[in-house]
Ras modification protein ERF4
Amino acid sequence: MAEVAPMSPSSPLPIQDRKCFFIQRDYSKGLTVAWSTEFPTELVRVIDERSWVSFIKELNERFAAADKITFRSVMETFLGLCTCYVFHPCTRSSYEIHLEDISDYIDDVNEQVFNTRGFNVCNPMEHGMRSLEVSFLFTEKEKPPLPPPTHNNLGIVPRI
């Protein structure tokens, strides 16, 4: 019996039949963790470009906040050095807290937006932060219909 992707209870694809693609990291600003905001052609008829770019920008901002040097992160490093790193197993670092928040954010967006559109974004920490894996949950024939367009704050109906 084939393993089944856990995201869609109605009609999931077997893992070997799953179609997926990867969004590569954007190294244009150095080694900071950031993802390319280019809209992938694979998602053209699945989600609107503004929603995808908004998700990627928010993800990039959250990773930037995790990498930010703060008083707390400096003190965590200092206490680690002073205690020969015995201090680290006793508490969670600010970086670990940020990574957990990022993981929760990705899970929430998947549940509320992406899974209803028929795809799932995997946590980049599962791939060593080298890429974002985007997996489709349905075959082309089983794809759920797009929701009706909604008006944004400006009263403009976005094109899908």
Notes: Residues 1-11, 153-160 have pLDDT under 50 and may be disordered. Residues 77 and 83 are 10 Å apart (CA to CA).
